[in-house]
Amino acid sequence: MPKHLDESTPHVHPLRDKKILCWAMYDWANSAYTTLLITVLVAYIQRVVFPVEDWGRTGAVIWAWGISLSMFLGAVLSPVVGAIADAQAAKRRWLAITALAGSAASILMGIVPPRMYVAVVGLFVFANLMLELSLGVYNGFLPEIASKKQMNSASAWGYGLGYLGGGIALAIAMMILQFGGHIGLPTTEIRLRFSLILMGSWWALFTLPALFVLRDRQSGGHVKTSFRQSLRASVADVSRTLRSLRSNLPLAFFLLSFLFYNDAVQTVISQASTFALQELSFPEAELMAVILMIQFLALPGSLVVGRCADWFGQKSTLLGCLMVWSSVLFLALMVHHKTGFWMLAVVIALVLGGTQSVSRSLMAIMIPTDQNAQYFGLFNLSGKATSFLGTFLFGAIVAGTGSSRWAIFGLLPLFVIGALLMSKVNVLPQQEQQASDV
Fold first, then answer.
1. Would residue 381 count as lying in a domain?
2. How confident is the model at residue 436 (pLDDT cuts 50, 70, 90)?
3. Structural domain boundaries enclosing 98
4. pLDDT by residue (tens digit) across 20-79?
5. CB atoms within 10 A of CB 412
6. SS3 readout for 329-393
7. Does a structural domain hold residue 136?
8. Which CATH number belongs to the domain containing residue 305 in this structure?
9. What total number of domains does the chain contain?
10. What's the rounded Cα separation, in Å, for the pair 269 and 391?
11. Against a cut of 0.90, is the pTM above it?
12. In this structure, is residue 373 part of a structural domain?
């Protein structure tokens, strides 16, 4: 199986390639879940399933622990699932299993009565886990469908379409919450549950193009194995992959760097609402509008950053993005009005998708041949292994100082460590040239 497509293939716009377009549609599909997760689902669990007046802070604790548990399980299982997918040439099958199971769980969350809180929490954790597992095998398709010349732009379009799709889904959910009474949804509880059904249905529907079009590439000597054999082999493969990082220091430094700066990025996104509510007294409706704005600006932002990666190389572009993120944390100390928060949100939107897409494309050009899903499983592991660290640090600073402003600033060391490790990544000159030679 070739690691990348033939570089002699004429360059065309990524979305004119049916395989890349259908691949990118999975970003569009799952982004409805990730966007409504932090808007609709969090409100449903904390205000309907575990209302404060009946359960106190139980809903908030279960929300945090549920995400932590799913992240931990995803970090452990992603490399194993990726290795099995590679061993059986079954990335498409595993994408179908994980994506459709997660979307079904999301739909069931809206159908199951909120009084069945154990079932709701179980479905929530399961859906989040399925998303994490699906992303590892999904990312593993990128080196098989895009040439190195297309890698940056294909990855950027994937993230860009994801933010656009997530934004449209959020806009629809906002209209359901605002005008649901006109379509037979009389209460907030019913409107939230209907939005959860929308979340799962969107995820399932827009996953179908990828499942219909994408196919695993197989080498001529590939022999499919049983699930048990693949499982045993996957454990051994993961161990070998981890050991191989000792002889591939650039990739090891990149994964360590990603581990820190990605955790910081995700914590800023998940805790920015706390900053807005506590420090700037944002009303909920305006906060949702900020999130919607970020969703739509992230599309052109990811494309611009992707183009910068073509011109200047992935490593230099990533270091530039990390400098922007660090600057945002400094500026947050001086923001005392809503206008300043809106301006920072614009900056975040412009580098958010680009930081993620360039990270993915840099990983794609550094991995060994025929081990795409397996190494992207480790990429997913690196992104989730310390997913608790940023939020724990944020909460500890809030508990100690009572200020979410200083808590946001306290994430700066994660970006600094990530940037220092990234500076140690030695990307081969021919890799940078092939990635930027459009």
1. yes
2. very low
3. 14-217+230-436
4. 888 889 999 999 998 888 778 877 887 789 886 777 657 766 776 787 788 778 877 887
5. 15
6. HHHHCCCCCHHHHHHHHHHHHHHHHHHHHHHHHHHHHHCCCCCHHHHHHHHHHHHHCCHHHHHHH
7. yes
8. 1.20.1250.20
9. 1
10. 11
11. no
12. yes
